[in-house]
Amino acid sequence: MLEHHVRVHPSADRLPREDQLAWKLAQAATGTEEPAADSAAMAVNRVIDNAAVAVVALLRRPVAVARAQALAHPTTARGASVLGTEARVSPEWAAWANGTAVRELDFHDTYLAADYSHPGDNIPPLLAVAQHTGRTGADLLRGIVAAYEIHVALVKGICLHAHRIDHVAHLGAATACGLGTLLRLPTETVYQAVQQTVHTTTATRQSRKGEISSWKAYAPAFAGKAAIEAVDRAMRGEHAPSPIYEGEDGFLARLLDGPDAHYTVALPEPGEPRRAILDTYTKEHSAEYQAQAVIDLARRLREKTGPLHRVRSVVLHTSHHTHHVIGSGAGDPQKYDPASSRETLDHSAPYIFAVALEDGTWHHERSYAPDRARRPETVELWRRITTVEDPEWTRRYHEPDPARRAFGGRAVVTLADGTVVEDELAVADAHPAGARPFRRPDYAAKFRTLTEGILAPDAGTRFLDAAERLADLDAEGLDALFPAVDTAAVAAHDAHLPKGLF
To answer: Do 232 and 376 fall within a single domain?
Structure first.
């Protein structure tokens, strides 16, 4: 890997583009060759995972709204598919609809380091552009692997959360790079597209604070849509604010660490295999990633606590990130409010631990149902659960070795008679270092479980077969990556939506 040291430069420095981070990202992307077998296999896993969580979210309101907006933008060109319909629309709008479906349930892949990310959010815009431009499955695979490489590198090197900047700022840059790789664009074009995308997709973290709304699902789709539009403009010769990262009024100086900002971003050398996708991991449970181990730990503790009315308090000792993002350290009273939105509850470690401790399981709908959240005994238990930051868990969260990195914590349960029950879990069971690491059969099983009753069995089989053969699909074959659903039922559901501008 090559380490790129990034700092703020005054305009008078006239920083050469070859020394700018946006150029280095574009160069690493356009230098991506055919992926190694293990990277390609993981990309297939990610395609399967995305489809599973998108199909099961099809009738949820945010997804239906995004789909309605997309269907108002048909195209006379080749276009791209909108999941749940037989329509083809302009690719940026297909990316908007499909990206929202993928993100809605907070149920696909993750990578955590200096910052947060869901690299699977790169796939909907890449697939849309691949369809629209007649690219093959091999082209799409190369683009996915490149996007993951850039996304993971940025998440490792530049923390956004410390400055309350939403993590989709890194997603937009990665998607622009993946699109450039997919289309085999010149480095200069991708460089301009990266800068445009970063400039237009930077937003605050208020979308994930307090009462969290449906925008949490829309935000990554918006970044993907913006990246497609930026690539289109760059292909037409348009330039961007430059240098977007290093400029004295740029991203680092005004939004992150200020004029003295200094970061190190490691990117692969020319010819070096792109393997960052192998460091990412998916979710077994529909909740924020740092809650995955919390759910598994709660399920394990059920056997030790006895009747839950005896629980006086639960304290989760965990990392800075977990405590401040989904724990009581966030200072959000909404994380303890039974009337909170689903999006808020899936970012509430106290709520999640309480329900998992009571039920011994987790479900993407039932565990968040309003009547479930308002159950009196649940509310009573929930409000006795707090989190604290433990420096050792924070250190383990930032462990340089991915195989030793920890995203869990230690639960200390105090019973009414003073008895203390403790247990800890470093990573979720489905994590690569966990008790039951996800493999291809697990992704296929997740797909079949989530789509049961929505897809006909043969439709699911056809999709899984196409995904397995992704590297060999021709341009028309990419259509098979959209599982066939009952489009009439979807249309009937959408007919009841309020009308907008389009």
So the answer is: no
